[in-house]
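Need a sequence for this fold. Nothing fancy.
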């Protein structure tokens, strides 16, 4: 049952009754019902979960202090395999007033406090991005930059520290790092970058997916109608603030510089490839600040996957810095293209271990997905046809992604970034993203805790796995403006902030019962009072049935029957409670989306602005002529890309009339032997003429709306006849 509003008179009676009823009664349980402890946006879904032995609906009340604001009955869900609990749902979605210090009550049980406010997710977004500055290598972390900007917390000297790994005192530096003994005879300056996780290692593979997440977050803001100014100069309060460059790009550049420095120099064996990682030879203990680390450090040999991470992110870098710092953009593109060619020469140099004493492995036995990802990014940036074969021959099958599985980042970039030469690919990529998102939405709406996670997916970094899936759901909303995607996204996001079986916010500093003791060598206040506790905005790995560390095993042994409970907030529980750059990159992305969604939902659906991006310098796009005047239904026919034996084209049907176009069809002929080989977002029949019809979901084109499909063809010997729709000629 959804929320029932109380009248002012009824509120007064309830408040008086509560004062009497609670005067001498102890609360049975705090944290049940389970809620998003940060809170909810006014017009979004607001679902709480209540654990109880009862199978019958129970009365609930929403209160602010002793004043009842809404009431209703729980909705029995039943047994939940992930938590082992019998659960009910409480739907507060009808309550859309902004308020703070709210609590939800069922009998004598009450939730942790929460708020309802449109801007709830703004501060924590910037907190999650501040994480990256705090974990920079090779630069002092200064007090004045430890907080502030648009984050929720002020600067504080406890988080300041000297620069790490600059060869000062006992600290070994990263300015002249040798290769792992016996693997090469040169050294590299790899002083920048972000420390990966709780250790002091720096990794190209995990660094690559982290860079992609932040840059994709920014590209989404640029191209899909959200607010790119959210990442403008000055928003993060970092050392580069004030230079006229968006702060998010300045922060990412610190890591990008490191990745560029990991490329094998010309003249060396494996030139152009990227070293897999750099870290200490031998594990260090906790606590330990970066500048206190006295262990020798070494470069681990190159790998194909690290090289393709550099190729993919270097291509992203090139297009985003093109109009900001052309020299840097060219450096990124040169490195990316060089890395691509090096990976093609060495496709089987996969990291299989042997250099893991002191750092994580990040091994991967298959680089096909990295080749696809890198090809997609390079093709978007350059329009160079040599990358098309890899894109067109790869079948995207996964519904999630992570550092070892990168096909979806390639697909999402194709779906997000508009260029003249990727128009057809963009249409098909958006369709595929929406298909995957539908799968996740169905899962969210069918499991008790409303997450896109089955009970078998609680493994290392399960919170990241869940957040990564939300990228697809968020983009599906961007492409369609269908609220079922945005609302499902919000339901799942609540899990990270406490609407889970532990009633625990996995995000530090946000929620009454939130992360405090992550596995981190510097934020080690739990072990030693001379070290700080962590700042707000870090995301813990989350429940993990693997329990790979002894502390988790001792605390959680036997939790496998309740996989969502396999988590403990202890600093040495590294298999459940570590924090990493790729996980925080996911947190930042989902918060950026939901912060946008809060504003869009308040004002109703919004349409993305027309794409105005200019193509790369080496591309001359084919501009479509103006549509034929006079008809209510028109279409645009664009050759998206052309090579020596083939081309791709996109066709957009535009309904300028006052009535819907239903069950549309197109027919066209080629008189030169052109042969269509593949089509997306339409059904194809015949060949003289070719006939394209709708595929169900796009059968209706509403007045003022448009629909696009695309195809690939082998070229013939002459010009192609243009298609027609409803009597209007497409030009």
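Here you go.
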């Amino acid at each position: 049952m959804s929320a029932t509003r109380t009248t002012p008179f009824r509120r007064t009676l309830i408040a008086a009754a509560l004062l009497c009823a609670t005067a001498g009664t102890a609360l049975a349980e705090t944290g049940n019902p389970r809620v998003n402890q940060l809170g909810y946006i006014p017009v979004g879904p607001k679902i709480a979960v209540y654990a109880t032995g009862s199978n019958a609906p129970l009365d609930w009340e929403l209160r602010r202090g002793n004043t009842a604001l809404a009431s209703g009955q729980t909705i029995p869900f039943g047994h939940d395999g992930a938590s082992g609990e019998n659960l009910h749902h409480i739907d507060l979605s009808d309550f859309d007033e902004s308020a703070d210090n709210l609590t939800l009550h069922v009998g004598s049980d009450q939730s942790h406090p929460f708020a309802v406010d449109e801007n709830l997710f703004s501060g924590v977004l910037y907190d999650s991005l501040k994480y990256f500055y705090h974990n920079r290598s090779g630069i002092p972390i200064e007090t004045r930059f430890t907080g502030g900007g648009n984050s929720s917390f002020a600067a504080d000297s406890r988080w300041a520290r000297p620069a790490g790994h600059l060869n000062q005192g006992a600290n070994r530096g990263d300015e002249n790092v040798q290769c792992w003994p016996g693997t090469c005879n040169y050294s590299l300056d790899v002083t920048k970058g972000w420390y990966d996780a709780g250790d002091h290692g720096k990794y190209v593979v995990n660094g690559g997916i982290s860079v992609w997440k932040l840059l994709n977050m920014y590209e989404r803001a640029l191209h899909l109608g959200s607010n790119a100014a959210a990442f403008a100069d000055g928003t993060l309060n970092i050392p580069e603030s004030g230079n006229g460059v968006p702060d998010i790009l300045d922060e990412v550049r610190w890591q990008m510089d490191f990745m560029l420095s990991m490329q094998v120099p010309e003249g060396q064996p494996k030139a152009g490839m990227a070293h897999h990682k750099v870290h200490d030879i031998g594990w260090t203990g906790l606590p330990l600040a970066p500048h206190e680390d006295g262990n020798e450090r070494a470069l681990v040999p190159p790998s194909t996957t690290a090289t393709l991470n550099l190729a993919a992110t270097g291509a992203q870098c090139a297009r985003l810095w093109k109009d900001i710092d052309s020299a840097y953009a060219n450096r990124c593109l040169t490195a990316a293209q060089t890395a691509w060619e090096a990976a093609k020469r060495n496709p089987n140099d996969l990291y299989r271990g042997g250099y893991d004493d002191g750092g994580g492995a990040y091994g991967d036995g298959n680089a096909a997905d990295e080749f696809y990802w890198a090809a997609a990014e390079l093709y978007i940036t350059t329009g160079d046809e040599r990358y098309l074969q890899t894109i067109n021959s790869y079948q995207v099958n996964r519904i999630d992604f992570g550092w070892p599985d990168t096909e979806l980042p390639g697909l999402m970039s194709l779906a997000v970034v508009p260029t003249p030469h990727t128009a057809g690919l963009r249409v098909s990529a958006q369709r595929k993203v929406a298909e995957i998102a539908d799968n996740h939405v169905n899962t969210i709406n069918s499991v008790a805790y409303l997450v896109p996670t089955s009970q078998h997916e609680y493994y290392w970094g399960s919170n990241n796995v869940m957040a990564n899936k939300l990228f697809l759901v968020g983009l599906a909303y961007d492409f369609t403006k269908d609220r079922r995607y945005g609302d499902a996204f919000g339901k799942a996001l609540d899990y990270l902030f406490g609407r889970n079986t532990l009633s625990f916010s996995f995000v530090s500093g946000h929620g009454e019962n939130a992360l405090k003791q992550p596995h981190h060598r510097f934020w080690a206040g739990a072990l030693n009072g001379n070290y700080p506790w962590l700042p707000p905005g870090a995301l813990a790995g989350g429940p993990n049935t693997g329990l790979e560390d002894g502390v988790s095993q001792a605390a959680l042994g036997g939790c496998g029957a309740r996989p969502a409970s396999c988590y403990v907030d202890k600093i040495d529980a590294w298999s459940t409670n570590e924090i990493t750059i790729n996980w925080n990159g996911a947190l930042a992305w989902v918060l950026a989306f939901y912060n946008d969604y809060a504003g869009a939902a308040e004002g109703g659906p919004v349409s993305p602005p027309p794409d105005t991006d200019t193509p790369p310098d080496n591309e001359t796009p084919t501009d479509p002529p103006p549509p034929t005047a006079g008809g209510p239904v028109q279409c645009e026919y664009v050759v998206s890309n052309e090579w020596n034996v083939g081309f791709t084209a996109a066709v957009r049907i535009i309904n300028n009339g006052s009535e819907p176009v239903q069950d549309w069809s197109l027919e066209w002929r080629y008189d030169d032997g052109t042969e269509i080989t593949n089509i997306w977002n339409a059904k194809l029949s015949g060949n003289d003429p070719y006939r394209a019809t709708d595929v169900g979901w796009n059968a209706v084109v509403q007045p003022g709306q448009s629909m696009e499909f695309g195809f690939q063809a082998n070229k013939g010997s002459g010009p192609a006849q243009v298609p027609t729709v409803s009597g209007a000629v497409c030009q």
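For context: The CA atoms of residues 182 and 301 lie 10 Å apart.
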